[in-house]
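Input.
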Amino acid sequence: MSLEFFITSMIVVLLPGTGVIYTLAVGLGRGFRASVAAAVGCTVGIVPAAVASIVGLAALLHTSAVAFQLVKCLGVIYLFYMAWGILRSGGALDVTADKTAKSSFKIAITGTLINVLNPKLSLFFLAFLPQFLPADTANAGGALIQLALAFMAMTFVVFVGYGGCAALARDYMIRRPTVMTWIRRSFATAFGALGAKLALSD
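Output.
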């Protein structure tokens, strides 16, 4: 793994996206342990995109408008569903939710679906990973797998950091219902905006 790959990947991971917003929301609403589950889910959600890019399936999304539109529509619907859930009952920001293993599992599943239902993630890996593959690489498949695993590891570490920072602010937030209301509205708006952005993508 080159220094260029590490720096570029870190910049990409740090940029706010659906996974970052979801992990922050869970950290604020349910605490650090739940945010780790969200980080795990978001990281696992990268696997299909990474595999698709490595075996060339991402090219199908790039060349087939029907395939891209189908996955995109599912992703848009899910993001809007997340926004509505946060506004209606708190969703990830429901501070009264229990912290059982089942609850953590559901949090992880949601994080996984957020990334799985984002077709742009497959296209990102298709364009991103080959740039850091030397032309004389003997085992291109193995090298791409190593790069994908490194990217996932960085994603998990950064997302856990985001979740931890959000969890630290949790007690301050939940003692102030008005602040929590605005936080909830902000996250709902963010998910709605990301859904609209995905809906308008080509």
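The chain has one domain: 18-199.
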